Structure of Pentatricopeptide repeat-containing protein:
Amino acid sequence: KMNEAVKLLEEMQGKGFVPDEKAVKEVLSNKSGHVFRTVISILFGK
C-alpha cells in the first residue's frame, strides 16, 4: 500500500500538486498513530 501511495503522490506532483506541510500538520496535530506518521512520511519524506 505504501508503494501505491508514493506512486499516487508522484503522479499528483507531476500534475502540479504541492502539499502544504503546515496545513497537513495542523490537521493531523491532534491525531496519533502509525497511519498519520506514514502520511507525513509519504508527503514530506520525513
About this structure: The chain has three helices and no strands. The chain has one domain: 2-44. The longest helix spans residues 2-14. The chain has a mean pLDDT of 88.
